[in-house]
Amino acid sequence: MSSLPEAAAALGPWWFRFEHRGVSFGGAVERDRAKTDWFFAHVAALGGVPRRILELGAHEGSHSLQLAAHPEVEEVVALEGRRATLERARFAQRVFGDRKIAYREYNLERLEPADFDRPFDAVFCAGLLYHLPRPWDLLGRLPALTRRCLFLDTHYAAAPEATVEGHPGCWFTEGSDPLSGLSPSSFWLTFADLVRTLDAHGFAVRYARDMPEFPKGPRAFILAERKGG
């Protein structure tokens, strides 16, 4: 019988390093709780911890497991576009014995609210928006998917270099690794246009953590509330 690290290695290459009961498996990048801790710390002021969460871009399930570990969270529906990455997420889920997460293979460039039977309390979108060629399309579909709030962790354009369909920002070339988008290029919105687009689709930014000196480009955590929700 293979050991846990050996069984995990068969699904590699991994990005994150996981640890369960003192045994490590997966990749070399240490997991941290910066995003989920910030989310839970601030969402409490917007009506309490959400029971049902839709996660966009689950990758290997690092954030999925952190979200599901919160005792007040009842369900996490986690979407991921790459099948091989999804297999690693499901492997980690089995190792940790999680029963709250429902993973689905899904192309997030074509998100359709009709694919879900009812809205979620929150949408958690970390490390995805800046990998999309038309991020405003995704933002426009989210009001039908959450009753309460949206968390975004995203890079943004420091200065506009192009304007696409009225949105200022800059183009970015994607790679072929599992951390890249499904399309060959993506469009980074400026921070101001990101806030404007959220507002146009019924989201009011309540909390933001701006990280203009973040490696590889400015980045921000944003928690936006559904207006009138």
**Integer average pLDDT:** 94
End-to-end separation: 52 Å
The SS-based structural class is alpha/beta
* Assembly state of the chains shown: single chain
What characterizes the major β-sheet? 7 strands, mixed
Element-by-element helix/strand order: HEEEHEHEHEEHEEEEHEE
Strand content: 25-35%
How many helices? 6
- Lateral arrangement of strands in the main beta sheet: 6-5-4-7-8-13-12
What's the overall geometry? globular
According to CATH, what is the class? Answer: Alpha Beta
Q: Portion of residues in helices?
A: 10-25%
Rg to the nearest angstrom?
Answer: 17 Å
- Could you give me the name of the CATH homologous superfamily? Vaccinia Virus protein VP39
Number of strands: 13
What is the CATH architecture annotation?
A: 3-Layer(aba) Sandwich
Number of domains: 1
- Report the uncertain regions: none
Stated plainly, the CATH topology is called Rossmann fold
Description:
This protein is α/β, with parallel strands linked by helices and 229 residues long. It has a single domain (32-226), classed as 3-Layer(aba) Sandwich (Rossmann fold), CATH 3.40.50.150. The chain is 24% helix and 33% strand. It has 6 helices and 13 strands. The chain has helices spanning 4-9, 34-43, 62-69, 83-96, 135-141, 191-200, and strands at 16-20, 23-26, 29-30, 52-56, 75-80, 101-105, 120-126, 146-155, 162-164, 167-173, 185-189, 203-211, 219-226. The strands form 3 sheets. A 7-stranded mixed β-sheet has the order 6-5-4-7-8-13-12, sandwiched between helices. Helix 4 links the parallel strand 5 (75-80) and strand 6 (101-105). The chain is globular. It starts with a helix and ends with a strand.
